[in-house]
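# nightly structure sweep
# worker-07 picked up a monomer target from the shared queue
# config: single-sequence mode, recycle default, output format = structure tokens
# input follows
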Amino acid sequence: MSEEALQKSFTNAVNDSNLVPGLKMVITSNRPDEVAIDPTGQKSDAAFFHSHSTPTDDRPHWGDQIISVEFKSAVENSKYDAFDDADDVEGFAEAASRKKVRGQLISYAELLLAVQQRHAVFTLFVIGRQCRFVCWERSGAIATKLIDYYDDWERHRTVREGVRPARRMNELADPRDSDVNHNERDVEANELNEGHGIHGEFVYVRKMFADSLVEGWPRHEVEIVEGGKTFKFWIAKPHFIAKGLAGRGTRGYVAYWVEGDVFVWLKDSWRAVYALVDCEGDILGTLNGAGAPNVPTLLCHGDVLDLDVSVVVLTEDEKPPLPSPDVLVAHGEASSGQKLPEKILHRDISSGNILIYPRVIVKMSSLRLRWRGLLADWEMSKPIVEDEKPRQSERTGTWQFQAVSLLRANSRQRAGIPEELESVWHVLLYHAVRYLPSTLSDEEVALFLDEFFDVYRKVRPSRLNMLIHDVLKSLFWHYAVQKFDEARRIESKNSAMTAARSGDRDDDGSADQGPSTTERLLAQNMTFHGFFVGEISDAKRIASTDRSQKHDRVPTNWVSPRRPPPKVGTKVTETQSRKKRKVALQEAHLNGLRTEPSAGALASTRRAPSKDGAPMDPVLHPRGQSDLSHVRGYWMYGCLGVPNKDPCTDLDEGEEIN
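# output follows
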């Protein structure tokens, strides 16, 4: 029986016989949900729904599913069974086809746990005449052994549905006249409330709440009991959802606090249960009590029912994360422990744990609304104690931003302040490359971020690392000294001319002292053959122990993706726009780097006017040399702040490229 025929026959049998009272089974494999619900466009084969909310459009409706159903046709050797009942395995089949199916089931379960407020979700996995029930939760999955549903047709499961909030959420999402502009600006005293905060809600906060009210996404009322007091919050679609099925499953909401009649930031996460690991709410309470700056302000926290899931509610609101000096102030205060019972190390500095929010700043006699930074997510933090044993069996933190010393295989390095500051650097690098202008194309930016932050592989260090390090350092200071000395020469010449006219002497003594003696010695390496002889000899000695196979790394059929350079004498037509002409010529210059030199490859540059306007003699250079210096200039001088003149900037209409 084909998979499609199996779906129809199974669905009809369940519904016609009312095998699951109160629920109805519907095929959902024809169309995905709206992008706002599921941007990945996934489609489960079928699902159980409450009888009163059964969909009719053949879509998955992830927010309303009670049990997801996946069908696979019966194949010899259980080719599509994601699990294994054999006694000598741990339940997970390792064949490629079976692992692929398991990945499919995991993606459905991950989406269900993200959309719904569930302790666990269930999947009915049907394979021909047999089936399994799979329970998915944040700690993993549990699957039953295969069931022959023809003989054991009475087996089924029921799942409770969460409480839905009041319809008043739609009214709360509507803009109001009392909403406050969140842009940085001067603030009048009459705009402040008794707590020196702004009257009303910020515009961006209400909009974020309105954006969370997505049609098809369930709405919930969450209760937190702390100190005998109950806090109620209304939530819909999370603003942030952590990826992955296993793990803390963190979700962040712009929530409405019912008793306080105000919007807050609600964090919902599963926490690790270890003897010496504190709740994030307790840690934030300690930081708030000591007056630690630039950390979230705690409203309440607690576990939900009897489940090991914690909810922390913050009175501040989130915006997209950016690196901020405020983060260093918060980290410095916590790690120094000056006002705390003990020093605290954050241990999970990452892009997602840095937030910004608008805050009223009092400076002298003026009030100003400014965006300030917060260091959030302190659940991984721990006191700084000498010779303390690890509290958890696995390395904690976001590995994309962790220090190199912590990522090394079998590393026993403990996280400390240097490792934390290295994480700050990685966050700064990530956002600088992603959001600031640079010479990289968007594709190159995406590739770099993927390779640097998201790809993990074991890389054998190059035998030439030390050589490259020493030469680059000497090159850097060679150009730095060259730049400084040239600037000093021009400055001295101008000062002498000024002094000659005025009769004054320039003996201010306040000029920049420039590179140090050590830095000048490094620069002199580039004039000393013995430096290169020593470096290359050391590299050769180290490389002589390398027994790996060596081959040409450039494929023989490789072709440059750039356009070939124009031939000598090519005219630049007037029909080309100046912008397109510049881009084309820059590509030609860059492509010159890949042009293999040949006999007679000397060419004359165009005549450039001298200072007095007379044309200078043409300069002979190997083809590609000017291109090479142009590209290297961006790379080397970029660190030194030396502006490079683009060789294509002032090309005139109809001018020849020689």
